[in-house]
Design brief:
The complex is a heterodimer of chains A (534) and B (194). Chain A is of the alpha/beta class. Chain A has helices spanning 8-18, 34-45, 58-71, 81-86, 88-94, 123-129, 139-156, 166-169, 199-222, 245-253, 272-280, 294-299, 325-331, 359-372, 405-415, 427-443, 470-479, 497-509, 523-533; strands spanning 2-7, 23-26, 51-54, 75-80, 103-109, 133-134, 160-165, 171-177, 227-229, 237-242, 261-265, 267-268, 284-289, 308-310, 378-380, 421-426, 448-454, 487-491, 513-519. Chain A has a seven-stranded mixed sheet, sandwiched between helices. A five-stranded mixed sheet of chain A has the order 9-11-10-13-14, with helices on both faces. In chain A, α18 (497-509) links the parallel β18 (487-491) and β19. The longest helix of chain A is centred in the middle third of the chain and has 24 residues, at 199-222. Chain A is globular. Chain B has one domain (4-192): 3-Layer(aba) Sandwich (Pyruvate-ferredoxin Oxidoreductase, domain 3). Chain B has a six-stranded mixed sheet with strand order 2-3-1-4-5-6, with helices on both faces. In chain B, α4 (129-136) crosses α5 (142-151). Chain B is α/β, with parallel strands linked by helices and 194 residues long. Chain B is globular and about 40 Å long. The chains are: A alpha/beta (534), B alpha/beta (194). Chains A and B meet through β8, α10 and α13 of A and α1, β2, α2 and β5 of B. β8 of chain A pairs antiparallel with β2 of chain B.
Chain lengths: 534, 194
């Protein structure tokens, strides 16, 4: 057994490695990115046959992992919460097949939206698909639960979700490791009828999955990760916590006059009997959940409604944003701690911004000047560093929805009769899920201009290599059906500004589909290459 | 010295806040502490305000985040950023900030006003970390000057910090390591003056 200082993401990665991982796939997305990065680093510095790769998007990553499972080996697939929306088709259906090699899905949620467009709670997805979900609250649990997830994935022949949140993904602490298990080959899945989602077969498999829920609940009732502590001498209030809610409760609990009965839930589906046992010994429950009021909403169907429930639904805790030691302190009725005041307040914000020398700055400058010449225009945006083009001084984009949406939205706006419609997207996001929308637009030669801002990397998440290199993107765009006459490549340097501005303006004026690829490496890629050459 | 330290680290993305956290964490581990250290990655790192919570203790730590009113020290690479987190300080806590502003926003307040707001706190220290970093051998060592200043407030052995810096900067070469070590020493001297 050895001790090691790791991020929460890295604890999960190590749990997977030590459980005998064969292949890991993922798509970068804050706060999940460091899981695959850690495994890739481990592969570089250890003798191992493990494979860890970035994929085009979360769906292709998930499908890859299902294939590894079919082939008989343990697999990990990683993504951020909104990435699971992209992978949802593969994910939902994978609950109906008979998992062979253990399949663990690591999803990192982002309550508080530090780096995301929403704070959706992945526990709903696990519930929706009908699969078990493990939710660690600290680094050791992230490690231990991942190992356990492989065991139950193979025990129940089901994909298992591990749900992280930003504060655990990006917090460092020390974990104890056990010995690394070798990669085991279970052999190809024996029963192909359990691997085809044909309606006739799915009807049976769906019934089997519904039956399995009882086993999952039985497992959850017995799990030590669902810990019930009863104090029969204090009945006024009991506590239910999930995820990091437990940490913030325990941080404050020593200041309470009595020790409260407490159920912590780390394994889903929820342990119904344990909840009833808690409810039977208290008059009211305060439920402290990181994420949506997921368990809170279920309580009505589980416990006697005479027991008052306080949580996010009645405003005891804030219904959006992260939990923290302070809002949980208030929720359990403690006075705020004495603190210093007087020096804060009235400070201007310091929002993130494009780095000095960023190529996107030059691209936005040329685009803004080109657009300024038209009385009517629409510029749709996408997910990546260049989303910062929404903020001053650029203020270049008008919309942001999800990965790849800039292109589909531009097409829709153009077909709705708007003139001078421009979509802006990065190279990584284009390859993630922009390509299909470009094929749509090319199929009708829609009057719009697509600007692919190619900086040769997945920059926002920390310089992961893109799935395809810059020279190949041009060929790909032509293969989508774009007229080569209206495919322009611009080197975005300040000295080329006049020419770039002119070409962008001409292509916006052209009544048909144009694609402009703005080329220049991210300044951090340049830095990385220089660092490696040293 | 205490059994437990709660430290808020602040600055602007790119100022090396996370390296400060890394050096102190490694050193604290060498001295037998357990720790939790919460960082912000991703979009927020791009030139925006950066905050890290560092909790070091001889016993188990529950929360990754420091409660308001619990921090022993707010250590900031930048003066305006330090003021955002004053309410994390416990009544007897100290705010330590580098003196030079990082002006990447159009509405940066008057620096004298910022400095005097810091000086009006119960306990504070403003360090000319830029000057000391230059003296140490590289302007990039401002954050290590601040590590030195912070270390005077903690029961962590100087040798542990030296070893941590050597480990963390091992790929950067002898020159950078020795400049960073100088920076820590200068920061320690500056941190002791009050």
């Amino acid at each position: 057994m050895s001790e090691i200082l790791v991020l929460g993401d890295e604890a999960l990665a190590l749990g997977s490695i030590d459980a005998g991982l064969a292949v890991a796939y993922g798509y970068p997305g804050t706060p999940s990115t460091e899981i695959i990065e850690y495994i890739q680093g481990y592969i570089k510095s250890n003798e191992t046959e493990i494979i860890a790769r970035w994929c085009s998007n979360e769906k292709t990553a998930y499908e890859g992992s299902v294939g590894v499972s079919y082939a008989g080996k343990r697999t990990l697939v990683t993504m951020k919460h909104v990435g699971l929306n992209v992978a949802a088709d593969a994910f939902m259906n994978s609950a109906l097949i008979k998992i062979n090699g253990g399949l663990v899905l690591a999803v990192a949620d982002d309550p508080g939206m530090h780096s995301s467009q929403n704070e959706q709670d992945s526990r709903y997805f696990a519930d929706f698909a009908g699969i078990p979900c493990l939710e660690p609250r600290n680094h050791q649990e992230a490690y231990d639960m991942t190992m356990e997830a492989y065991r139950i994935s193979e025990l129940f022949n089901i994909p298992v979700m591990i749900k992280l949140v930003t504060r655990l993904s990006h917090s460092r602490s020390v974990i104890k490791r056990v010995e690394t298990l070798p990669i085991t080959d279970l052999g190809k899945a024996a029963d192909k009828l359990k691997w085809m989602a044909l309606p006739s077969l799915s009807r049976t498999n769906w019934k089997d999955l519904i039956e399995k829920q009882k086993e999952f609940i039985e497992y959850s009732e017995k799990s030590d990760f669902n810990k019930l502590t009863l104090n029969s001498s204090y009945v006024e209030t009991g506590i239910i916590t999930t995820g990091l809610g437990s940490n913030y409760y325990l941080e404050n609990a020593e200041d309470l006059e009595s020790s409260l009965s407490h159920l912590h839930i780390g394994v889903y589906p929820v342990p119904v009997d344990k909840i009833r046992k808690l409810a039977a010994s208290v008059e009211s429950i305060i439920i402290i959940e990181e994420g949506y009021p997921f368990v809170e909403r279920m309580l009505n169907g589980i416990i006697n409604e005479a027991i008052k429930v306080h949580g996010k639904l009645d405003g005891t805790l804030p219904s959006s944003g992260e939990l923290n030691p302070d809002n949980v302190r208030t929720a359990i009725g403690l006075k705020p701690r004495e603190k210093q005041t007087g020096a804060g307040g009235d400070l201007p914000g310091r929002p993130p911004q494009l780095c000095a020398g960023c190529p996107h700055t030059d691209a936005f400058k040329a685009l803004n000047e080109a657009i300024a010449g038209f009385s009517e225009s629409i510029v749709t945006g996408d997910i990546g560093c260049y989303a910062l083009g929404a903020l001053p001084p650029h203020s270049a984009i008008e919309t942001l929805l999800c990965m790849g949406a800039s292109i589909g939205m531009a097409r829709g706006a153009s077909e709705a009769g708007r003139k001078h419609v421009v979509a802006s997207i990065g190279d990584g996001t284009f390859m993630h899920s922009g390509i299909t929308a470009l094929i749509d637009a090319a199929s009708t030669n829609t009057d719009m201009t697509l600007i692919i801002m190619d900086n040769s990397t997945t920059a926002m998440t920390g310089m992961q290599d893109t799935i395809m290199t810059s020279p190949m993107i041009k060929n790909l765009v032509i293969a989508c059906g774009v007229d080569p006459e209206h495919l322009k490549e611009l080197k975005v340097l300040p000295k080329n500004h006049e020419e770039n501005f002119r070409i962008i303006k001409e292509e916006i004026e052209y009544e048909g589909l144009s694609v402009i690829i703005t080329l220049r490496e991210c300044i951090h890629v340049v830095g990385k290459i220089r660092g490696e050459l040293k | 010295m205490a059994e437990k330290y709660d430290i808020i680290l602040s600055g602007v993305g790119g100022q090396g806040v996370l390296s400060v956290a890394a050096v102190i964490s490694i050193a604290a581990m060498k001295d037998g502490y357990t720790l939790r250290q919460s960082e912000v990655h991703g979009m927020a790192q791009r030139g925006g305000a950066v905050l890290a919570h560092m909790r070091i203790s001889r016993t188990d730590i529950s929360s990754d985040l420091i409660p308001k009113g619990m921090a022993d020290v707010v250590l900031s690479m930048e003066p305006m950023e330090s003021l955002r987190y004053v309410d994390y300080l416990k009544p007897e806590g100290i705010l330590i900030s580098a003196s030079a502003p990082y002006e990447n926003i159009p509405d940066y307040p008057d620096l004298h006003d910022i400095h005097s707001r810091i000086e009006n706190l119960k306990s504070s220290l403003i360090i000319d970390a830029k000057k000391l970093a230059k003296e140490a051998g590289t302007m990039k060592s401002v954050n290590m000057v601040m590590v030195g200043a912070l270390s005077t407030r903690m029961d962590i052995r100087e040798e542990s910090i030296v070893e941590a810096i050597k480990e963390l900067f091992s790929s950067k070469g002898e020159k950078i390591i020795s400049a960073n070590l100088n920076a820590v020493l200068l920061g320690r001297t500056a941190g002791k003056i009050q």
